Amino acid sequence: MFKKTGNVVKEHIKNNKFLYLSLFLFYIIGICLGAASVNDLDFQQKGEMVTFFNGFVKLLDTNDFDKLDLLKITLLDNTKLILLFWVLGFTVVGFPVYYAVLGMRGFSTGFGSGIIMGMLGTKGILISTICFVPKEIILVPCLVALGVNGIKLSGAVFKTWLKRSGSGYDGIKQKIGPYNFVAAFFSFFILLTTLIETFISSGALKLLNF
């Protein structure tokens, strides 16, 4: 079963490699823009952000920090993202929104890591690696896959909408099952990053004792 699923995923990526590359490129562009925008902040603004981050790290060592609350917040955020990507597939405007969301995701990652590395140097690189890499390495490919999945269905919806064809809507109905399967498959791994962010990343920060 796992081998068959793996072959289906490989075939899906091969047949849609242009979409995968273009969506991932938007994410990379977002990272570059986010990192570059750090230079537009003055020293005081950077200092305030680092102070906030250090306060969060110290909170990890107190009894006031509840990982269950962090788990709920992160789970809610990821669930909202999954639902957004799923719903967009049924619309005629989904195509550009996927690119925009991945670009903004990259921007926030680049901005956050740029702030930390710029102010803390080598320590900042270590913190950024702990905070961003473990979850992003799983989350981003899954978001890209959901984006490709949604763009394919959104494109079919758009073509049917233009033609006003009843038979076209029947074809879309046949695509809904595979669409939901792919969405559920990659959503599982996205939700897995919730555990990584809550327990592994925060736990590693506590061990570093910044």
TrEMBL record:
Keyword terms: Membrane, Transmembrane, Transmembrane helix
Membrane-crossing segments per the record: 18-38, 81-102, 114-132, 138-158, 179-200
Transmembrane found in the keyword field: yes
NCBIfam families named among the record's database cross-references: spo_II_M
Protein name: Stage II sporulation protein M
